[in-house]
Amino acid sequence: MFNMLHGECYKLKKYKSFYICIAVVTIFAALLYGSLDLLDSIQQMEVEVMKGDTGEEAVEAEMEAGVSGSLEVNSDVELELDEEEPISFKEQIGIIGVVEQMFASNLVGFAIAIFISIFVIGEYGNGTMKNLVGKGYSRDMVFLSKLLAAVFSAALMSLLITALTVLLGLPFMGSQGFAALDWKDLAAYTGMQLAFVVSYTSVAVMIGEVTRSLAAGISLNIAILCFSTTATGLLDLFLDKYHIEISKFWILDLQAKCPVSDLGQEFAIRGLLVSLGWFLLAAGLGLLHFKKRDVK
Asked: Any residues with CB less than 8 A from the CB of 84 and at least 6 apart, and which?
């Protein structure tokens, strides 16, 4: 088992798709930071325009009324506007908010699902899986080693993306934004997201095992990531009169609703139990299918 895991980890280093997926998601994180800069610039322009318009209206009103000291009134208006200047989007969202968007919007999930599909299904296409089974290795060991390697790669990818997103906050948010980051909240949030990522990785491995087709595996994973939360929302609506909420027991819904601060004990326990349940269910179904179906 150890030798097989060592072999899987060695193959992981050779997969260019692993690094490509991380790079693509990191670029999206940079774009998200850039969009916050753009929104702040637009907001600042609007504030300056409002200051100018309000100042001109005040001066005209003073001139029409024939009252002197318009400059003092104008300065008073500017002071009032300065006091009411809105908080920037970067301050409102912060670095941890960007990290939240990376997981809640399934950007990390897309990258992991695509890589896991390549990592698992590619073994059937190049004949590696057939060779392993043909050499007499236990099918249980073959599947479990692949599952554990996939879990390790998905967790590592999530941690690297989180670290890179946080580091990108330094040039985009500045030292003040970086100093305002609550590391305890970040650690708790990242830990919960790792549980959800590991759980869905088991689902992705099962999908790869059942389909054994790269196109079908990636398509099905993307469909689940895009539409499953909508489906659970509709089920919640139909079952509302019975006080049943399906979304409370689906990992992607929990991932999207995971709070970035003040993580409650009830949510944490339910999230961990649901993640464990889906992990074991998907792993069991995948293993059963792998043992029953011929490897070609």
From this structure: none
